[in-house]
Every structure is written in C-alpha cells, then in structure tokens.
Amino acid sequence: MSEIHSERTTDLSILYANLKLRSNSLENVVLIKTGSMNPIHRSHVSNMVRTKKYLERACNFNVIGGYLSPTHDEYVYGKLSNELISGEHRIEMCRKAIEEAGQQHWLSVDMAECMAPGFVHLVSVAHSLQQFINQHLNLPKPVRVIYVAGLDLFNRCYGMGTLRKSPLGGVAVVYRLGQNNSVLKSTNAMNDPRVFYVCDNDDEMDTSSSESEDISSTLIRKRLKDNENCDDLTFKSVLDHMKKVSSKDC
Question: Which residue of 67, 150, 196, 210 has the fewest C-beta atoms within 10 A of its own C-beta?
Fold first, then answer.
C-alpha cells in the first residue's frame, strides 16, 4: 500500500503541542474517523470527544490528537449521485464544525482521503496515517492509531477485523444504550484488547434530547430540502457554508 498521507494533507502540529503538554509515561494514541460527512453532523464530533474521554479515563491512554477524514468524492458520488458535496467543501465544513465545537486543540481535518487519486479503503487510511505519524514523531514507543466506528459499521464492515489485528491499532465502537445488546455481543470481540466499547450515554457531555435519536447526514439533507430547521443536527457554521455553496450553484 502506498502512503497517502503527507505534510500537505495532515497537520501534525496538534500532536507535537499535546505531546509537550502531557505525560510521556502513558501510551500515546491518535483517533481517526472516516466517512462521507456529507455534511458533517454533531455526532461526528461528539463521538470523537466521547471516545477521547473514555480512553483517557478507562484505559489510561494519552490521546494526543484526532482526525476527521472525509471520504473521496468517487465513493460519495457512487452513493449519493447529485447530492454529493465536493470534498473541498466537506473539508471546510469539518474545519468549521471542529472550531464551533471548541475542539481545535486536539481535533483536525485529515485531507489525505479526499486528495487521493481515488477511493481508499478505511483500513488503508488508518494504516497510512499510523505510518506517517510514527515516521515523523519518531518516539521511543510508537503511537497507536485507533479507528472510531459506530456499532452498525463495526458489525457490517469486514475491515474492522483487520484493524483489530494490528498491534498498533484498534477500534473504538461507539454505541447507545437501548441498542440491541445481542448485536453488541454477536461481534465476538467483547474480550478483544484492541476493541474499546464507548457508550454514548456514559459521560458528562451536555447533549440535547435530539442526540438520543439517530442523527445522520441523510436527515440533514432531507430537512434542508423540506426547508426545516437543522440546528439540532449540525452546526450553524456548517449550515451557513452549505447555503453559501448552494447560492453559488444557482
């Protein structure tokens, strides 16, 4: 696999800054979440924050950074056709969402997928990021890269098994109380030391009632078509950017 990450696509400054701020006796971890993010919604960000808090509290990890990685236009167009928001704009909306959420001290947008010549599978994205980070940081103990996934993706994607086998990898599965526990157990990964189960109800985050429901980019697009309010689903800066893009296309 050729490495898709470079200093042009992936900002390492947050990792360097957080390494200086935190104890070097703990295992350093970087999170990554891929997906269409067409557009990004509140759960994309909140699930990263929840995972960071859980891994630091329950696993004693030192989470030095996290990346939101919008998927390549080729894949998104195949799924959504003319509903595709170009990678350029999805990257910008991710930046705006991170800033509005106040998470820019540790979260960043990884442009490697969007800027690749074509679609790259999530396993290759995670492995390339891991290689890139460790080549540049060159720490005595390598940085672990953990992929953040929802329960549905974890159960249906064959690549999750590959991520679980990597000695420097792992998967954080974000699930919600009320989801079918038998589905959770059916993954046969409950005792896997590289799988971390993060309950999205088990934290102190201030969430609106809508976050107990399913938030999706599909729902955002549907509401916008119906001229309905989406403030509970995504960020104002994201909606403002979508309006600006839409007005230019008219």
Answer: 210
